Protein backbone atom coordinates (compact mmCIF):
# COMPACT_ATOMS: atom_id res chain seq x y z
CA UNK A 1 0.00 0.00 0.00
CA UNK A 2 2.86 2.40 0.83
CA UNK A 3 4.64 2.36 -2.53
CA UNK A 4 2.34 4.01 -5.03
CA UNK A 5 1.65 7.35 -6.67
CA UNK A 6 -0.94 9.68 -5.20
CA UNK A 7 -1.66 12.25 -2.52
CA UNK A 8 -2.80 11.76 1.06
CA UNK A 9 -4.49 14.47 3.10
CA UNK A 10 -3.02 14.99 6.59
CA UNK A 11 -4.07 17.77 8.98
CA UNK A 12 -5.22 20.07 6.19
CA UNK A 13 -2.46 19.50 3.67
CA UNK A 14 -1.71 17.06 0.88
CA UNK A 15 1.55 15.10 0.96
CA UNK A 16 2.97 12.65 -1.57
CA UNK A 17 1.75 9.10 -0.95
CA UNK A 18 5.27 7.76 -0.35
CA UNK A 19 6.09 10.57 2.13
CA UNK A 20 2.93 10.06 4.23
CA UNK A 21 4.78 8.69 7.27
CA UNK A 22 4.51 8.78 11.07
CA UNK A 23 7.10 8.18 13.82
CA UNK A 24 7.58 4.65 15.27
CA UNK A 25 6.48 5.98 18.66
CA UNK A 26 3.11 7.11 17.33
CA UNK A 27 0.77 6.48 20.26
CA UNK A 28 -2.06 4.90 18.23
CA UNK A 29 0.36 2.36 16.74
CA UNK A 30 1.07 1.04 20.25
CA UNK A 31 -2.34 1.04 21.94
CA UNK A 32 -4.87 1.23 19.10
CA UNK A 33 -6.70 4.31 20.40
CA UNK A 34 -7.94 5.87 17.21
CA UNK A 35 -11.13 6.05 15.16
CA UNK A 36 -11.70 5.65 11.46
CA UNK A 37 -14.21 5.34 8.66
CA UNK A 38 -14.60 3.37 5.46
CA UNK A 39 -16.42 5.33 2.77
CA UNK A 40 -17.01 4.63 -0.91
CA UNK A 41 -17.24 6.87 -3.96
CA UNK A 42 -18.83 5.56 -7.15
CA UNK A 43 -18.73 6.50 -10.79
CA UNK A 44 -22.07 7.95 -11.93
CA UNK A 45 -23.27 9.53 -15.21
CA UNK A 46 -22.86 12.96 -13.57
CA UNK A 47 -19.33 12.29 -12.25
CA UNK A 48 -17.88 10.67 -9.16
CA UNK A 49 -20.11 10.75 -6.07
CA UNK A 50 -19.38 9.80 -2.46
CA UNK A 51 -22.18 7.74 -0.91
CA UNK A 52 -23.61 8.99 2.39
CA UNK A 53 -20.54 11.12 3.08
CA UNK A 54 -22.19 13.25 5.77
CA UNK A 55 -23.37 10.15 7.66
CA UNK A 56 -19.88 8.64 7.66
CA UNK A 57 -18.37 11.92 8.89
CA UNK A 58 -20.99 12.13 11.65
CA UNK A 59 -20.14 8.61 12.76
CA UNK A 60 -16.41 9.46 12.75
CA UNK A 61 -17.05 12.45 15.03
CA UNK A 62 -19.30 10.39 17.29
CA UNK A 63 -16.65 7.65 17.46
CA UNK A 64 -14.11 10.30 18.57
CA UNK A 65 -16.54 11.53 21.22
CA UNK A 66 -17.12 8.01 22.55
CA UNK A 67 -13.37 7.36 22.77
CA UNK A 68 -12.79 10.78 24.38
CA UNK A 69 -10.51 11.97 21.55
CA UNK A 70 -10.47 15.62 20.47
CA UNK A 71 -11.48 16.17 16.83
CA UNK A 72 -9.42 19.02 15.37
CA UNK A 73 -11.65 19.57 12.28
CA UNK A 74 -15.31 20.43 11.73
CA UNK A 75 -17.68 18.07 9.91
CA UNK A 76 -17.67 20.44 6.90
CA UNK A 77 -13.87 20.38 6.79
CA UNK A 78 -13.80 16.58 7.05
CA UNK A 79 -16.36 16.27 4.24
CA UNK A 80 -14.34 18.62 2.05
CA UNK A 81 -11.10 16.76 2.80
CA UNK A 82 -12.63 13.49 1.59
CA UNK A 83 -14.05 15.01 -1.60
CA UNK A 84 -10.71 16.74 -2.34
CA UNK A 85 -8.76 13.52 -1.76
CA UNK A 86 -10.85 11.66 -4.34
CA UNK A 87 -10.60 14.56 -6.81
CA UNK A 88 -6.85 15.19 -6.38
CA UNK A 89 -6.11 11.51 -6.99
CA UNK A 90 -8.30 11.49 -10.14
CA UNK A 91 -10.28 8.50 -8.89
CA UNK A 92 -13.47 7.61 -10.79
CA UNK A 93 -14.47 5.29 -7.93
CA UNK A 94 -12.76 4.94 -4.58
CA UNK A 95 -12.60 3.54 -1.10
CA UNK A 96 -11.90 6.43 1.27
CA UNK A 97 -10.19 5.99 4.63
CA UNK A 98 -10.29 8.86 7.14
CA UNK A 99 -8.58 8.14 10.47
CA UNK A 100 -8.10 10.15 13.64
CA UNK A 101 -5.00 9.13 15.58
CA UNK A 102 -2.74 10.30 18.38
CA UNK A 103 0.80 11.57 17.71
CA UNK A 104 4.13 10.67 19.31
CA UNK A 105 4.35 13.17 22.21
CA UNK A 106 4.32 10.51 24.92
CA UNK A 107 3.90 6.81 25.62
CA UNK A 108 1.86 6.85 28.84
CA UNK A 109 -1.72 5.66 28.73
CA UNK A 110 -3.03 9.05 29.88
CA UNK A 111 -3.60 11.10 26.74
CA UNK A 112 -3.57 14.70 27.99
CA UNK A 113 -0.42 15.78 26.16
CA UNK A 114 -1.10 14.02 22.91
CA UNK A 115 -2.08 15.78 19.70
CA UNK A 116 -4.80 14.29 17.53
CA UNK A 117 -4.20 14.08 13.77
CA UNK A 118 -6.65 13.43 10.96
CA UNK A 119 -5.67 11.71 7.73
CA UNK A 120 -7.65 10.87 4.61
CA UNK A 121 -6.45 8.44 1.93
CA UNK A 122 -8.37 7.10 -1.08
CA UNK A 123 -7.71 4.35 -3.60
CA UNK A 124 -9.56 2.05 -5.98
CA UNK A 125 -10.95 -1.09 -4.30
CA UNK A 126 -13.26 -3.57 -6.04
CA UNK A 127 -15.78 -6.00 -4.54
CA UNK A 128 -14.49 -6.74 -1.00
CA UNK A 129 -15.64 -10.36 -0.87
CA UNK A 130 -15.12 -11.17 -4.58
CA UNK A 131 -17.12 -10.15 -7.65
CA UNK A 132 -18.42 -13.67 -8.35
CA UNK A 133 -19.75 -13.90 -4.78
CA UNK A 134 -22.10 -10.95 -5.39
CA UNK A 135 -24.35 -13.40 -7.26
CA UNK A 136 -23.51 -16.86 -5.90
CA UNK A 137 -23.02 -15.83 -2.27
CA UNK A 138 -20.28 -16.50 0.26
CA UNK A 139 -19.56 -19.36 2.65
CA UNK A 140 -19.45 -18.22 6.26
CA UNK A 141 -18.24 -19.90 9.47
CA UNK A 142 -19.28 -18.99 13.00
CA UNK A 143 -16.17 -17.68 14.71
CA UNK A 144 -14.57 -19.19 17.79
CA UNK A 145 -13.75 -15.58 18.77
CA UNK A 146 -16.45 -13.62 20.60
CA UNK A 147 -17.44 -10.09 19.53
CA UNK A 148 -16.36 -7.50 22.08
CA UNK A 149 -18.61 -7.01 25.06
CA UNK A 150 -20.32 -3.63 24.84
CA UNK A 151 -18.55 -2.46 28.00
CA UNK A 152 -15.10 -3.58 26.86
CA UNK A 153 -14.84 -2.02 23.40
CA UNK A 154 -17.42 0.66 22.80
CA UNK A 155 -19.28 -0.93 19.91
CA UNK A 156 -20.97 2.30 18.75
CA UNK A 157 -17.50 3.63 17.94
CA UNK A 158 -15.60 2.52 14.86
CA UNK A 159 -12.34 2.41 16.82
CA UNK A 160 -9.03 1.02 15.55
CA UNK A 161 -7.99 -1.31 18.39
CA UNK A 162 -11.02 -3.61 18.42
CA UNK A 163 -10.34 -4.61 14.81
CA UNK A 164 -7.71 -7.14 15.93
CA UNK A 165 -10.76 -9.20 16.96
CA UNK A 166 -12.18 -8.96 13.40
CA UNK A 167 -8.79 -9.86 11.94
CA UNK A 168 -8.44 -12.99 14.09
CA UNK A 169 -11.98 -14.04 13.18
CA UNK A 170 -11.66 -13.58 9.43
CA UNK A 171 -8.18 -15.17 9.38
CA UNK A 172 -9.50 -18.21 11.23
CA UNK A 173 -12.44 -18.49 8.80
CA UNK A 174 -10.23 -18.07 5.71
CA UNK A 175 -7.72 -20.67 6.93
CA UNK A 176 -10.58 -23.14 7.37
CA UNK A 177 -11.66 -22.48 3.75
CA UNK A 178 -14.54 -20.02 4.32
CA UNK A 179 -14.97 -16.51 2.94
CA UNK A 180 -16.06 -14.69 6.10
CA UNK A 181 -16.65 -15.11 9.85
CA UNK A 182 -19.91 -14.68 11.71
CA UNK A 183 -19.31 -13.21 15.16
CA UNK A 184 -21.44 -14.08 18.20
CA UNK A 185 -21.74 -11.66 21.11
CA UNK A 186 -20.71 -12.36 24.71
CA UNK A 187 -24.15 -13.95 25.32
CA UNK A 188 -23.84 -16.26 22.32
CA UNK A 189 -26.25 -14.40 20.05
CA UNK A 190 -25.48 -13.41 16.47
CA UNK A 191 -23.79 -10.01 16.28
CA UNK A 192 -22.29 -9.30 12.83
CA UNK A 193 -19.62 -10.30 10.32
CA UNK A 194 -15.97 -9.32 10.86
CA UNK A 195 -16.65 -6.11 8.92
CA UNK A 196 -20.34 -6.26 7.98
CA UNK A 197 -23.83 -6.30 9.46
CA UNK A 198 -26.11 -9.31 8.93
CA UNK A 199 -29.66 -9.65 7.64
CA UNK A 200 -31.75 -12.81 7.30
CA UNK A 201 -35.05 -13.33 5.47
CA UNK A 202 -37.74 -15.70 6.75
CA UNK A 203 -41.19 -15.96 5.18
CA UNK A 204 -40.68 -12.67 3.36
CA UNK A 205 -39.73 -10.77 6.54
CA UNK A 206 -36.27 -9.23 7.13
CA UNK A 207 -34.53 -9.58 10.48
CA UNK A 208 -31.26 -8.06 11.66
CA UNK A 209 -29.53 -8.28 15.06
CA UNK A 210 -30.13 -5.32 17.35
CA UNK A 211 -27.15 -3.03 17.82
CA UNK A 212 -26.08 -4.00 21.35
CA UNK A 213 -22.71 -5.32 20.20
CA UNK A 214 -22.73 -4.61 16.45
CA UNK A 215 -21.63 -1.48 14.61
CA UNK A 216 -24.44 0.89 13.60
CA UNK A 217 -23.76 0.29 9.92
CA UNK A 218 -24.69 2.93 7.38
CA UNK A 219 -25.37 0.26 4.73
CA UNK A 220 -27.59 -1.49 7.29
CA UNK A 221 -29.57 1.74 7.68
CA UNK A 222 -29.81 2.09 3.89
CA UNK A 223 -31.21 -1.45 3.60
CA UNK A 224 -33.71 -0.80 6.42
CA UNK A 225 -34.87 2.34 4.58
CA UNK A 226 -35.35 0.31 1.38
CA UNK A 227 -37.31 -2.34 3.25
CA UNK A 228 -39.69 0.38 4.48
CA UNK A 229 -40.03 1.86 1.00
CA UNK A 230 -40.53 -1.54 -0.67
CA UNK A 231 -43.12 -2.70 1.86
CA UNK A 232 -40.87 -5.43 3.29
CA UNK A 233 -41.35 -5.87 7.03
CA UNK A 234 -38.04 -5.51 8.90
CA UNK A 235 -37.34 -6.20 12.57
CA UNK A 236 -34.28 -5.71 14.77
CA UNK A 237 -34.13 -8.57 17.25
CA UNK A 238 -32.01 -11.11 19.08
CA UNK A 239 -30.95 -13.75 16.54
CA UNK A 240 -29.43 -17.17 17.19
CA UNK A 241 -27.02 -18.96 14.86
CA UNK A 242 -29.51 -21.76 14.18
CA UNK A 243 -32.04 -19.17 13.01
CA UNK A 244 -29.54 -18.29 10.31
CA UNK A 245 -29.20 -21.98 9.36
CA UNK A 246 -32.93 -22.18 8.62
CA UNK A 247 -33.35 -18.75 7.04
CA UNK A 248 -34.68 -18.53 3.48
CA UNK A 249 -31.98 -15.98 2.62
CA UNK A 250 -29.10 -14.26 4.39
CA UNK A 251 -26.78 -11.43 3.38
CA UNK A 252 -24.09 -9.15 4.79
CA UNK A 253 -23.97 -5.37 4.40
CA UNK A 254 -21.11 -2.90 4.64
CA UNK A 255 -19.51 -0.04 2.76
CA UNK A 256 -16.71 -2.33 1.59
CA UNK A 257 -18.83 -5.51 1.26
CA UNK A 258 -21.86 -3.60 -0.13
CA UNK A 259 -24.70 -6.20 -0.21
CA UNK A 260 -23.11 -9.66 -0.29
CA UNK A 261 -25.36 -12.76 -0.27
CA UNK A 262 -24.50 -15.67 2.07
CA UNK A 263 -25.00 -19.14 0.64
CA UNK A 264 -23.83 -21.20 3.63
CA UNK A 265 -23.27 -20.90 7.36
CA UNK A 266 -21.27 -23.64 9.11
CA UNK A 267 -21.74 -25.95 6.08
CA UNK A 268 -25.54 -25.64 6.23
CA UNK A 269 -26.92 -24.42 2.91
CA UNK A 270 -29.09 -21.34 3.39
CA UNK A 271 -32.33 -21.39 1.38
CA UNK A 272 -31.62 -22.37 -2.24
CA UNK A 273 -27.87 -22.03 -1.71
CA UNK A 274 -27.55 -18.94 -3.88
CA UNK A 275 -28.63 -15.27 -3.87
CA UNK A 276 -32.31 -15.14 -2.90
CA UNK A 277 -34.95 -12.90 -4.53
CA UNK A 278 -35.26 -10.35 -1.69
CA UNK A 279 -31.46 -10.12 -1.42
CA UNK A 280 -31.28 -9.60 -5.18
CA UNK A 281 -33.91 -6.84 -5.16
CA UNK A 282 -32.24 -4.98 -2.27
CA UNK A 283 -28.78 -5.41 -3.79
CA UNK A 284 -29.95 -4.11 -7.19
CA UNK A 285 -31.55 -1.07 -5.57
CA UNK A 286 -28.35 -0.41 -3.61
CA UNK A 287 -26.13 -0.54 -6.70
CA UNK A 288 -28.56 1.64 -8.68
CA UNK A 289 -28.56 4.16 -5.83
CA UNK A 290 -24.81 4.41 -5.34
CA UNK A 291 -24.21 4.73 -9.07
CA UNK A 292 -26.73 7.58 -9.37
CA UNK A 293 -29.35 5.66 -11.38
CA UNK A 294 -32.17 6.49 -8.97
CA UNK A 295 -33.53 9.98 -8.44
CA UNK A 296 -34.69 9.49 -4.84
CA UNK A 297 -32.35 10.13 -1.87
CA UNK A 298 -30.31 12.61 -3.89
CA UNK A 299 -28.99 13.85 -0.52
CA UNK A 300 -27.00 10.61 -0.17
CA UNK A 301 -24.72 11.47 -3.11
CA UNK A 302 -21.97 14.09 -2.80
CA UNK A 303 -20.37 14.86 -6.16
CA UNK A 304 -16.66 15.55 -5.91
N1 LIG B 1 -19.67 -3.99 11.29
C1 LIG B 1 -18.34 -3.84 11.30
C2 LIG B 1 -17.55 -4.48 12.39
C3 LIG B 1 -17.71 -3.07 10.32
O1 LIG B 1 -16.37 -2.92 10.32
C4 LIG B 1 -18.49 -2.48 9.30
C5 LIG B 1 -17.83 -1.67 8.21
N2 LIG B 1 -17.69 -0.33 8.58
C6 LIG B 1 -19.88 -2.68 9.32
C7 LIG B 1 -20.43 -3.44 10.34
C8 LIG B 1 -20.77 -2.05 8.28
O2 LIG B 1 -20.82 -0.67 8.44
P1 LIG B 1 -21.08 0.32 7.23
O3 LIG B 1 -22.28 -0.20 6.51
O4 LIG B 1 -21.31 1.64 7.84
O5 LIG B 1 -19.85 0.28 6.38
TrEMBL record:
Annotated pathway: Amino-acid biosynthesis; L-valine biosynthesis; L-valine from pyruvate: step 4/4; Amino-acid biosynthesis; L-leucine biosynthesis; L-leucine from 3-methyl-2-oxobutanoate: step 4/4; Amino-acid biosynthesis; L-isoleucine biosynthesis; L-isoleucine from 2-oxobutanoate: step 4/4
Coiled-coil annotated residue ranges, if any: none
CDD domains: BCAT_beta_family
Pfam families linked to this entry: Aminotran_4
SUPFAM superfamilies reported in the protein's UniProt record: D-aminoacid aminotransferase-like PLP-dependent enzymes
InterPro entries in UniProt: Aminotrans_IV, Aminotrans_IV_CS, Aminotransferase-like, B_amino_transI, BCAT-like_C, BCAT-like_N, BCAT_family, Class-IV_PLP-Dep_Aminotrnsfr
PROSITE patterns named in the record: AA_TRANSFER_CLASS_4
EC number: 2.6.1.42
Cofactor dependence: pyridoxal 5'-phosphate
Source superkingdom: Bacteria
Listed GO MF terms: branched-chain-amino-acid transaminase activity
Its biological purpose: Acts on leucine, isoleucine and valine.
Family of the protein in this entry: Belongs to the class-IV pyridoxal-phosphate-dependent aminotransferase family.
Protein name, per record: Branched-chain-amino-acid aminotransferase
Protein's organism: Salinisphaera aquimarina
Recorded name of the encoding gene: ilvE
Amino acid sequence: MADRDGLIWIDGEFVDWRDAKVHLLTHTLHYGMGVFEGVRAYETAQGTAIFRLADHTKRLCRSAKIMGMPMPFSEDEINAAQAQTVAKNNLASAYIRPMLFYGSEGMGLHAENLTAHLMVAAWTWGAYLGEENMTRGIRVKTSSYTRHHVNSAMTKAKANGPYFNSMMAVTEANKAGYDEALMLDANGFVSEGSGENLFIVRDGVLYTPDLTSALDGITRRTIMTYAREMGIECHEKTITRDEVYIADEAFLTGTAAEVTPMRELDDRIIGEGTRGPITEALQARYFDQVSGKRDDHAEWLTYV
